Amino acid sequence: MAHKLLIVEDETGIMQFLQQGLEEEGYDITTANNGADGLALAQQNKFDLLLLDWMLPKMTGYELCNAFRETNKTTPIIFLTAKDTVQETIEGLKAGANDYIKKPFNFDELLERIKVQLRNKELPQQLTLGNVSIDLQKHLVTVEGAEVSLTQREFELLAYLVKNKGKVCTRTDIIQDVWDIHFEYDTGVIDVFMNAIRKKLNLKVEEDYIKTVRGVGYIANDN
Ligand code: CA
Fold first, then answer.
1. Contact present, 38 and 60 (Cβ < 8 Å)
2. pTM beyond 0.90, yes or no
3. Boundary residue ending a domain (88, 120, 152)
4. Cα(78) to centroid of ligand 1, in Å?
5. Apex CA 80: angle with CA 125 and CA 117, to 5°?
6. How far is 191 from 195, CA to CA, in rounded Å?
7. What are phi and psi for residue 165, nearest 5 degrees?
8. Where a domain ends, among 120, 145, 164?
9. For 47-100, what is each residue's pLDDT tens digit?
10. What is the CATH number of the domain that holds 198?
11. CA 88–ligand 1 middle distance (angstroms)
12. Which structural domain range is residue 191 located in?
């Protein structure tokens, strides 16, 4: 199904350009040319993303964003605006926007930013591995309800393995994706972190959901 986007923009030329470009990319587009109509549409429908101009008649994009966030915390919002001072960017993000793109903008860049937001939105926020639960938003790991305190890197490594549940994660994959290191590197560091994670999770032998694949890497599996 096509993603539903709401565009709120009062400049006709920009609106037509956006609508046409995004429809060609397969998005289902709804438009409003003032803030009040935009807010009403956003509240009455279920959009996958809102694209808001900052300066709008009747209600600014900033006010729209604030009002919308009172009841909806999750729909991604991208501001599209000529305003680009640090202060206004901060204001926009404080009001609950997820991203910000400056006019005049490059369409391909906007498209990529939209894709990033839609992808993030679709990632599950809760992962499980046997009796281990991982809350990606709160960065919380529990085993049968009891909280386990992991360091940032331990958390990222565990979440990475669980996101790839059932697949072997090679040492190279792990070092690139979790450590963000893209050159020859001693991957022994992974074992150190894995040992720490196993110790903290304190799983019983029969609950050993994370297995070492000798010479290759690790696999999380709870089947
Ligand atoms: Ca405007």
1. no
2. no
3. 120
4. 14
5. 15
6. 6
7. -50, 135
8. 120
9. 999 999 998 999 999 999 999 999 888 899 999 887 666 777 777 777 889 898
10. 1.10.10.10
11. 15
12. 126-220
